[in-house]
Amino acid sequence: MPLPNSSNSNNKKGPVKFSLYWMYALVLVFMVGVYFMDDKSITKDVSYSEFEKYISQDHGITKIIVYSDKKEAEGFLTDSLASALFHQTQFKPGEGAVPKVITDIPSADKIDSKIEQWRAEGAFNGEVKYEKSGAMSSILWSYGPFLLLIVFWFYIMRRMSGGGGAGGGGGVFSVGKSKAQLFDKDNAVKVTFKDVAGLSEAKTEIEEIVEFLKNPKRYTDLGGKIPKGALLVGPPGTGKTLLAKAVAGEANVPFFSMSGSDFVEMFVGVGASRVRDLFRQAKEKAPCIVFIDEIDAVGRARGRNPNMGSNDERENTLNQLLTEMDGFGSNSGVIILAATNRADILDKALLRAGRFDRQIYVDLPDLNDRVAIFKVHLQKIKIDDSLDIDLLARQTPGFSGADIANVCNEAALIAARHNKPSVGKDDFIAAVDRIIGGLEKRSKITTDEEKRAIAIHEAGHATVSWHLRYANPLIKVTIVPRGKALGAAWYLPEERQITPTQALLDEICSTLGGRAAEELFLGHISTGAANDLERVTKQAYAMVVYYGMSDQLPNLCYYDSTGQDYGFSKPYSDERAKIIDQEVSRIIAEQYERAKSILKEHSEGHNRLADVLITREVIFTEDVEAIFGKRPWVSRTDEILAAKAVTDGAADDGHDVTDVDAEDVTDGADKPAGDSGSDGKEALPPPFPG
To answer: Which residues pair with 361 in a beta bridge?
Structure first.
């Protein structure tokens, strides 16, 4: 039930503000008035003697209007006289135009006596009217432009004085105003820290800042000072912006939200002006929090790309931001939060203590965090009672929070497409396959020869990886085209923090298993291994150049993580480049021969596996176990879960795994998403140019 005074407060209207649309309305009224007041007449100025002639001799005037104040007279012409005076394009009888002639008269008295004379002679018998020239059309034409100019001048003065453009209204005079959105306790921001699953360390850092704003005396009594800024760094989709939304929902202080690109404009000085206006508003509402999303748009390191000595607007904006964050001015009570996934390109002056005192790394979620994230996103989905959330978390290593949200949504869509009452395990498996490998294309035409080649290729991957200790455990193999891939093999990557040399070699060997199987069992090779060769080349290059895992070049790393020192030149000589090429070729050749030897040893099992693939188009772990037996090595993921089960006092089966990561065989196409960084290692840096 509404309060008694609520209706009065809702009906109360603020002062009417001047709008540019008012000027448009005035111009429109002016043009409509002129249009409707126009009598559609055609006129001709003549001398007084001609006017007399038209009356006395031609008898061609039917009506006279005398304007005494202007000493003018109008004569309405007959059609015959009008046809003689005007061109046929100007006047045609019967089309509605009113022909007139206008002349100057000596005075109203003289024209009156002259009219009496014409009446006496029988030359004129029409109507005579005496009027004053005060028509609205004449007034509009005379004074309308001046009135419009005065109104426009008042409007410009109002905008320049700030009356109509303060607060960033969007006009040309408010271009320097801040575009930050303000959130406070009255706004409907419902995200809290309970909605942020995982990220326990990052949440602890952020919650401390919020707690300081709520209870500052607890810290200041011990001499502590609140951090001036915190920078959230991490891969895309890990929850940096979500953490900022939780801060806006938890903190009972004003919260300004702005994107880094909002500072950048084509006008010189606009970015710096917006920075000043943002901090001016923040100081007025202190204590408060300012959040700048994607700060790398304005915080890129200065001097990296000089524009031929010209004025760089982005650098001016960054300089103003540095001054406002920690300059001579006082920003007491203003805390800066920022987020980026490209911290390596930020200016060093922006990252120093005193501006961003804390750098909080928001990493990809581990196994336990993925379980918590799934629980959050599954709250609004009707799931089957048999669904195992721990199993879903094990299926999605390397997935960010945004990827997990996408998996849950795709699973719900797949279940709805099949008219199911709830979302089950099969729907989530199909969703993971859809996101990693792409859409299944059963309508794609493949010949029997191509189908057999794809089956032998995929069986080669499965056979080699099954007999290597550090190779990722096989989950599922299919020869059904999916996305750009003609076939795909799903593996469960180990979530390692460090990777030994033998693990990298085993990974290269299993990746080359498809090409080796083609050569051994088909007698020829094809373009289907293009993506495999690209991956192993990058992996071997990284082992030699970045990880120092080469016998000829041990303990050397030519990778610059800052990206500032080498530029477009290689940090080694041509002779060293030749040795690097030789080492990369040696590693790949050795692992290729190793893959062929494994396939020769287990050729019978490989052929059986290929036949099953051709018949069923998809095989699972159980099918490979039936042919080769169980693997003697326990996966690291199973060890982690077993240790967790002991800690929690619960039992864990440790063996129920399904489709996880896709390793595809493409016809010269790119690999689908979902493999990069999923084994816990840092993604490979790009090779050096040249």
So the answer is: 233
Phi/psi at 171 (5° precision): -80, 180
Provide DSSP, 652-673: ---------EEEEEESSPPPPS
For the chain, helix (H) and strand (E) counts, in that order, are 24, 15
Over the Cα atoms of the chain, what is R_g? Answer: 42
Q: What is the DSSP letter of 494?
A: -
In three-state secondary structure terms, 370 is helix
Phi, psi of 283 (to 5 degrees): -65, -35
Cis peptide preceding 287, ω within 30 of 0: yes
Q: What is the DSSP string of 418-463?
A: TT-SSB-HHHHHHHHHHHHH--B-TTS---HHHHHHHHHHHHHHHH
- SS3 at position 220: helix
Measured in whole angstroms, the distance separating CA 679 from the mean position of its chain's CA atoms is 28
**DSSP assignment letter at 383:** B
State the Cα–Cα distance between residues 351 and 322, nearest whole angstrom: 10
Chain Cα centroid distance, residue 302: 25
410 close to 451: Cβ distance less than 8 angstroms: no
Q: Which long-range contacts (C-beta less than 8 Å, at least 24 apart) are formed by 200-209?
A: 200/369, 201/360, 202/232, 202/239, 202/243, 202/360, 202/361, 202/362, 203/243, 203/246, 205/230, 205/358, 205/360, 206/230, 206/243, 206/246, 206/247, 206/360, 207/250, 209/247, 209/289, 209/335
Helix (H) or strand (E) holding 55: helix 48-56
Measured in whole angstroms, how far is the alpha carbon of residue 548 from the centre of its chain?
A: 39
Torsion angle defined by CA atoms of residues 183, 184, 186 and 192, in that order, rounded to the nearest 10 degrees: 80
458 is catalytic: yes
Q: What is the pLDDT of residues 536-550, one digit of tens each?
A: 999 999 999 999 999
Outline where 251-312 has alpha helix (H): 270-284
Choosing from 324, 410, 458, 518, the catalytic residue is: 458
Q: Read off the DSSP letter of residue 617.
A: S
Compute φ and ψ for 106, nearest 5 degrees: -60, -50
Distance of alpha carbon 41 from its chain centroid, rounded? 60
pTM higher than the cut 0.90:
no
pLDDT tens per residue, range 433-470: 788 767 666 666 677 888 888 889 989 998 998 999 88
User: Which residues in the chain come in under a pLDDT of 70?
Assistant: 1-24, 26-28, 30-40, 96, 133-144, 157-189, 265-269, 304-312, 327-331, 437, 439-445, 483-485, 495, 561-568, 634-690
Strand 485-491 relative to strand 474-478, pairing: antiparallel
Checking DSSP bridges between strand 98-104 and strand 41-45, what pairing results, if any?
parallel
Residue that has been written with the tokens 């061109």 in this structure: 87
